[in-house]
Amino acid sequence: MKNKWLKNSNRQHLRYSMRQASGIALALVxxxxxxxxxxxxxxxxxxxxxxxxxxxxxxxxTANQTTETTTIGKNQISIxxxxxxxxxxxxxxxxxxxxxxNTAAATTNEIAAYLLNEADSAVNGGENSYNYDLYGYVxxxxxxxxxxxxxxxxxxxxxxxxTKGIMVGKSDGxxxxxxxxxxxxxxxxNEAKKMINRLKNKGKRFKLSYDGQVLRIINLPKNYKDYPYxxxxxxxxxxxxxxxxxxxxxxxxxxxxxxxxxxSDEDKDMICAKIKKNVELRLxxxxxxxxxxxxxxxxxxxxxxxxxQKSVNAYIKAAKGRKIVMTSGDVIVDPSSLWLCRNxxxxxxxxxxxxxxxxxxxxxxxxxxNEVIYGNYTAVKNLxxxxxxxxxxxxxxxxSYTGKKITSCGVSVYFDGIDDYY
Length: 422
What we know:
Elements: H1 3-6, H2 11-29, H3 31-36, E1 56-61, E2 66-71, H4 79-90, H5 109-123, H6 132-140, H7 152-164, E3 170-171, E4 179-180, H8 189-200, H9 236-240, H10 256-262, H11 265-283, E5 285-286, H12 293-301, H13 309-322, E6 325-328, E7 332-333, E8 339-340, E9 346-358, E10 378-379, E11 389-402, E12 405-411, E13 418-419
C-alpha cells in the first residue's frame, strides 16, 4: 500500500524512510514503556475549550510602515506575538517570508501550523524534520478529517505538524481514527504556549502509531502490556474485553505486542484491509442492487480460499428471497489488535455497528441467519428488531509465506462468524 504514495517520491525521501524504519518500529514497541518512565502527557492538551472574549490590539508593521488594528479576544494571541514567541525558542523569523499582511489578527490553527512547521523545519533539517513514511499514512488515511476547510497554503503544514506530534487537533469520537483540526478556529494563549513548548521540546510531542493515529500513554487498560500501543480514541474496553478466540489464547500463541514485532507494517496493513473489506461487503446489502458480478468477485477475493462460487450463489438466492436490506457504520480493524495463533492464523479485532432495515429474518436458534449475513456462522439475537447491533469480535486470517515473507492472506472460512457476543 505504501507504494501508492512513495512511488513518485524523490530519492531523498526514500533514503530518509529507510534510515528511519528501524527506529520508528522500535519507538512504537517501546511506546508503553515511556509511560512507565513517568511521562504524564495528556491527550487533552491540544483540545482545550475555545473562548470568545473581545478586545482590541493595535500594532505597527515596520516593513510596510502601516498601522494594523484588529479586534481579537483578550484570551487570544496575535499572529505577530505568536511568531515572536516562536522566534524566541528557535531563533527563526517565521514571519519574514510568510506573506501574512495583517499580523495583528488573531492566530488560527492553520496559521499556527504554518509558523510552527516553518520554524521546526528550519532548526531540524528541512525535509528530514519529519518521518516521510508516517506523513504518507497521515495523508493516505485522511487522518485530518476537516483538512478541506484549510487554505491550500496551510494544508501541508497541518499534515506535517500532525506527523511531528506538535499539533493533533481533536478526536472525532470514540473508535475514530481521524481528528478535527478546526483550521479557521482562533487559538487561545494557553494553547499557543503548549504548542510552542512542543516545538521547543520534542519529548513533549504527541506520539503516533506507525499508521498515523494518536497514542494514549496515561489511563491505560489493565492489560496494556499485551499491546504494541494504545490508541487515544479507543476505550479501554476495546483492549480489555476478551473475545471468543482470545479466551483460548495460550503461551504458545503470540500477544498483539509480540505479533507486532513479527509482522511488517505492510503485513499488518494487508491483513486489516482484507478483514475490513470482508465485513463491509457482508454487512452492506440491498437485495435489489448489491449482487453484481463485481460484488461476488470482491467478496470471494477477501477469503483465503476464494473458490466459493457455490456458497456465494446460494447465499444470494436466499438473501433475495428474504429481501434483505442491511447497512453498517465504519468497520474498525486496527493493527494494534492483531495476534498470531500457534496454528498460523492471524486474528484481528473487529468493531462495527450495523442494522437490518428490511427482510424476513429468522431467529438465531434457527441456524439460518447465514442467509441474512454471508458466512460460516451467524447468530445474533436481535437481528430482526431493526435496531442497531454492535458487533465486536475477532475474525481470523489465513496467511501464506514465501520464505519468511507473507505473500498473501485472506479471511478464514472457519473464523468469519458474526454474532452478538459483545
